[in-house]
Amino acid sequence: MTCALGKFPYSSRGGLLGQFCDFLDKCLKKDQTERWSVKPLLNHEFIQRYCGDQAATPSPGTRQTAEDPDDGSKEQAAVDSIVQKVAEHYFKDAKELIKEHAYTLDDILAWLLPAMQEVKLSRFAEQIGASRSLVCAKFQEVMNDLLHDIEETYFGDAK
């Protein structure tokens, strides 16, 4: 914060500014449903008051997202990368659940469903600054493929 403000965010006698403490509280909430995402944090009173002109100005060498014609493809590539890593993680965890805990295909499906809740996917999209519809569509596609791969890999003999 010292770099952003050009000075310490507190006075030498009074301790930390109340607005700064509130900002940190919003940033550091353990519960993700209570934790603020980037957009509301940038609009927080502390940021607006002490860093408002800096928060609204893009860094040198970058363009506003609305002006960037490749923005959609960059967003899609970023979402694809994240979703693929999530699927790989779930595939490894599914193997452990099946081998060590005797999960059935129905158990795996029940285990995967919470990750597909629209509320969670919408929150995730907001956190990464991506389109909600893109994130939901990608997760639906990849998680359906994942379930199919798990079924073929671990339950193919049961058919």
Please provide a brief summary of the model.
Residues 54-77 are annotated as: Disordered. This protein is mainly alpha-helical. It has helices at 2-5, 18-27, 38-42, 45-56, 71-101, 105-112, 118-128, 132-155; strands spanning 10-11, 15-16.
The strand count comes to 2
Helix tally equals 8
Helix content: 55-70%
Order of helices and strands: HEEHHHHHHH
Give me the Rg, rounded.
Answer: 22 Å
State the distance separating the first and last CA atoms. 60 Å
Strand line-up of the largest beta sheet: 1-2
Compute the number of structural domains: 2
What is the global morphology? elongated
Query: Which band does the percent of strand residues land in?
Result: under 5%
| Class computed from helices, strands and strand pairing | mainly alpha
Give the overall average pLDDT.
82
How many strands, which pairing sense, and closed or not: the largest β-sheet? 2 strands, antiparallel
Spans of at least 5 consecutive residues whose pLDDT stays below 50 are 59-65
Protein name: Mitogen-activated protein kinase kinase 5
Organism: Phytophthora pseudosyringae
GO molecular function, one term: kinase activity
Keywords: Kinase, Transferase
